[in-house]
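@channel sequence for tomorrow's demo:
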Amino acid sequence: MPPDPQPSARDRRHYFRITTVLPVSIQLQTDIAKCGLAEKSVNLSAGGIGFVTDTAHRSGDILVITLLLQEHVLFTAQAEVLRQDSLPSQTYRVHARFIRMSEHDRELLIGHIMRLQRAHLHEHYSA
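structure tokens (generated this afternoon):
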């Protein structure tokens, strides 16, 4: 599979983003230890993920991201760290883009995000 092109500033928000809490596992690709899923707030799109962590990462690090989607489906993808912002209390906000993702997996993720968006809108506007 050819390398993913770097998105331009105009295309960076090509996919809808939503902030949600999901069971997630995030670890370096080179880390061989198994990491369990933990509830975490993530900013998720079909193009990438943002999250807060107490682990410092470098730009270019490759992460393995595993999410438990609503359908009880384990979704695993690789993501490249684009940048990291320092936050108080020795925590970091990490911005990463999904790489080497098949079209099938991207469509699965888009469907999940759309269901989250629909549920959020239903909850917000139904009274």
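heads up for whoever presents: The CA atoms of residues 33 and 55 lie 15 Å apart.
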